[in-house]
Amino acid sequence: MTVVSGLLALAVVSVVAAQDQKPAAASAEIVVYTFELPRSALFEFEVWSDSNSPGGKMAGTPNTGDQLHPPPEEDPHVRFKVTVQSGVPYRCWVHMKVGAPKGFSKANRLYVQFSDAVDARNKEILKPGTASYLTAQGPTQQGWKWVGCDADGKPSESLVYFRTSGEVLVHVQAGMEGVAFDQFVLSPAQFLEKPPSDAIVKK
Questions:
Q1: In 3D, which of 86, 158, 93, 155 has the Cα closest to residue 122?
Q2: pLDDT computed for residue 152 by the predictor
Q3: C-beta neighbour count of 109 within 10 angstroms
Q4: pTM for this structure?
Q5: Domains along the sequence of the chain with CATH
Q6: Which of 112, 111, 113, 122 lies closest to 162 in space, CA to CA?
Q7: Which of 66, 74, 45, 65 is nearest to 184 (CA)?
């Protein structure tokens, strides 16, 4: 084979390889159903039945009327891992079931934290075990509601970024006894500004 024909062959191979390459996958909606989580993911949360929930199950905390505290105090919580992309803004939503009020509890609050999370300025935030967290504050009316995870009640400052792409830990902690949830959504697109309109979000 001559040098010229060798170069032509190499060029053809390069073109074919380039055509076979697929573009990087766009960041996808992340949907977690609590019924799919192992029991080991639940700390002082219980599995409750509800025909309206995916898999007919949700995770909730008994209500004794006692008071709970925000992180870093470790009250009842659920932990699981999800796969994220770096440099992409995410918005967090929880499908919450507000329970019956009792004592100190209105049964309508959850706190959310993430490992490897940063703000728009690349500053570490929301790390489990710290006093940095988002609050999902539900209504006082009992029943199901999609609730946003907000920073001090400011949705505009509630976008979450991640330093690197890969697996991160999500820590969902009860802010009041009696609260329950069945779905967790971390959205980079479809629900970045508005909550889901359906009771169940499909994966």
A1: 86
A2: 79
A3: 22
A4: 0.86
A5: 27-187 (2.60.120.260)
A6: 122
A7: 45
